[in-house]
Amino acid sequence: MFGSLFGTKKLKTLDIEPSNLDDNTVYLCKVHDYRGKPISSQELVEITGKELKILSNIHGIKKGMIKYSNELLYNVVEEVVIEEKGDS
Q1: Which of 23, 45, 83, 87 is the most buried (most CB within 10 A)?
Q2: Residue 21, CB half-sphere, CA atoms under 13 Å: how many?
Q3: At a CB cut-off of 8 Å and minimum separation 6, what does 66 contact?
Q4: pLDDT band at residue 1, thresholds of 50, 70 and 90?
């Protein structure tokens, strides 16, 4: 009912809903302040899709970024590709 009224909450950079993140995939996130400005001193944060889903359910989404706390937002920018080493 309200989904069509308020629109869907998609992630800004990946353009997908948090519920579509893969639980076992690691994602890189840029840290932003509560106004949406990047915090330049922070490195990219690695976090799993399952953890991002939990955060989005508990804290919600603001400006297309997942709220980590009242002061910080995570902008999910990309998936981490982990190459499996073959048995040698």
Answers
A1: 45
A2: 31
A3: 11, 18, 29, 52, 55, 56, 59, 73, 74, 76
A4: very low
